[in-house]
């Protein structure tokens, strides 16, 4: 599980930064990706909940060290 960032071009030609949440199951390799306006902790939890609904609930969640 980690964040990535990308620039997005909207319909009006304005560019803004979007956060990309990605989570991969280390057991089966299934992936889940979702875009958010920022990488706040609340969006991390939302992304994790959506991942668990899509992939299923794991016994352990690994995250990168800070």
If you had to describe this structure to a student in words, what would you say it looks like?
The chain is of the alpha+beta class and 66 residues long. Helix content is 23%, strand content 36%. It has 1 helix and 3 strands; from the N terminus they run E-E-E-H. Strands 1-2-3 form a 3-stranded antiparallel sheet. The two termini are 13 Å apart.
Brief summary of the model shown:
With 66 residues, the chain is an alpha+beta fold. Strands 1-2-3 form a three-stranded antiparallel sheet.
- The tally of helices reads 1
Residue-averaged pLDDT: 91
What overall form do the CA principal axes indicate?
A: elongated
Write out the strand line-up for the largest beta sheet, numbering strands in chain order: 1-2-3
Question: What layout of secondary structure does this protein have?
Answer:
Elements: E1 2-9, E2 15-24, E3 31-36, H1 41-55
Antiparallel strand pairs: 1-2, 2-3
What distinguishing features does this structure have?
66 residues, alpha+beta, 1 helix, elongated
């Amino acid at each position: 599980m980690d964040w990535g960032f990308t620039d997005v071009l909207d319909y009006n030609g304005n560019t803004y930064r979007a956060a990309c949440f990605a989570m991969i199951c280390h057991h089966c390799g299934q992936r889940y990706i979702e875009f958010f306006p920022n990488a706040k902790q609340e969006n991390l939890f939302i992304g994790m909940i959506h991942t668990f609904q899509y992939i299923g609930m794991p016994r352990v969640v690994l995250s990168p060290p800070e």
